[in-house]
Amino acid sequence: NRRIVLARRPQGAPVAEDFRLETAPRPIAGDGQMLLRSLWLSLDPYMRGRMDDGPSYAAPVALGAVMVGGTVCRVEDSRLDGFLPGDLVLAYSGWQDYALSDGTGVERLEPHLDRPSLALGALGMPGLTAYVGLLDIGKPQPGETVVVAAATGAVGATVVQIAKLKGARVVAIAGGAEKTAYARETLGADVAIDHHDPAFAQTLATACPKGIDVYFENVGGKVFDAVLPLLNTGARVPLCGLIATYNGAGPDNAKRLPELMRSLLVRRITLRGFIIGDHRDRIPAFQKDMAGWLASGQIIAREDVVDGLERAPAAFISLLKGGNFGKLVVAVG
Ligand code: NDP
Question: Measured from the CB, is residue 46 less than 6 Å from ligand 1?
């Protein structure tokens, strides 16, 4: 049983030495337990927060403990009512080959899914995040301008496509020519802009001649700085993530705070943070809509698949720098 543990807390951007690969005997299920074999491991930006021990909405990973993460697993052995060997489940068993579970938080998946890993992406947590953030907080109306940050990633790509389905004009922001071309040609964004371009702020302004009605925030930093002056009166900003700052404080924001507050007031802007775990009541509606959109090809779910648990640390380090292209998942078993 291989597992990847948190070896030390990162200083700034994580490096390989912050993780450690350990080998231990395969655990044995006792009464009331089952043994899970990981097939797919999800790698997500929130894991950077769990590596720190400061206060947040969730507890940190302890030093020496297995890194947390959502997984799709096969039940290998079960001494627990309701689960049988061979069952496919969605679990939260972390960065390891095998794990014991008492069934808490484990959900059974249909046994013969074409792409079980989608339960970690478009049909799972990131998809629900896009759905709730855009529809419940962003509330895009036909013809409105919706701007999406990190627009080719797990959350962003779903936001772009749902916004198009709702009749909005979509401006996608992504890193590099390949991602911006994908946002236009495959995701259907009306315009796509590279945030590495030195003229980024000007290009964004030109792309939004009628201002911005909804800004789906995944990034923060200079991307938000370019968006703020363009937000219309009554604009909605679902605040989903701030990945540009996860590796530590960026430039001094103190001077920018009065400008932000004044903008919110004068232009009656709604800026609302949300954590997807609070929105489980939306899962049934989400699953129904998303299953339909995927089946009809109206939503395309690109995955970036990394082979082998031992590659998870490098893939995660790369995710925080834009190295992934689509939902990042590790093929474990
Ligand atoms: P992605 O698949 O989008 O991967 C992260 C992407 O962020 C990178 O590929 C990169 O894309 C972009 N990025 C990284 N650093 C920067 C930077 N400095 N400036 C601009 N872009 C950057 O990840 P997810 O879709 O899983 O997550 C997207 C966001 O949503 C994250 O902030 C995450 O924390 C948040 N989130 C929040 C949830 C909630 O409950 N509130 C739930 C799930 C996710 P590029 O190359 O295009 O720059």
Answer: yes
Give residues with Cβ within 8 angstroms of 8, minimum separation 6: 17, 18, 63
Ligand 1 midpoint to CA 149 (Å): 8
Facing residues of 38 across strands?
73
Q: What is the DSSP string of 207-229?
A: H-TT-EEEEEBS--HHHHHHHGG
Report d(CA 253, CA 289) in Å as an integer.
39
What does pLDDT average to in each consecutive run of 10 residues of the chain (333 residues)? 98 97 96 98 98 93 98 98 97 98 96 92 98 98 98 98 98 98 98 98 98 98 96 98 88 77 97 98 97 96 98 98 98 92
Is the reported ipTM for this assembly greater than 0.95?
A: yes
Q: Whose CA is nearest to atom 35 of ligand 1?
A: 241
CA-derived radius of gyration, the chain: 20
Q: Cβ(1)–Cβ(98) under 8 Å?
A: yes
129 Cβ inside 6 Å of ligand 1: yes
Question: With respect to CATH, is domain 2-121+302-331 assigned 3.40.50.150?
Answer: no
Q: How many Å lie between the centroid of ligand 1 and the Cα of residue 243? A: 5
Beta-carbon neighbour count of residue 234 at 10 Å?
10
139: burial class by Cβ within 10 Å (0-12, 13-18, 19+)?
middle
Lookup result for tokens 């930093």: 221
Identify the H or E element spanning 312. helix 312-319
For the Cβ of 124 lying below 6 angstroms from any atom of ligand 1, the answer is no
Residue range(s) of every CATH 3.40.50.720 domain in the chain: 125-276
CATH superfamily of 125-276: NAD(P)-binding Rossmann-like Domain (3.40.50.720)
Count Cβ atoms within 10 A of the Cβ of residue 20 and give its class: 0-12 exposed, 13-18 middle, 19 or more buried.
middle
Contact 197, 220 (CB under 8 A): no
Probe residue for ligand 1, chosen from 42, 218, 222, 318 as the CB with the greatest number of ligand atoms within 8 Å? 218
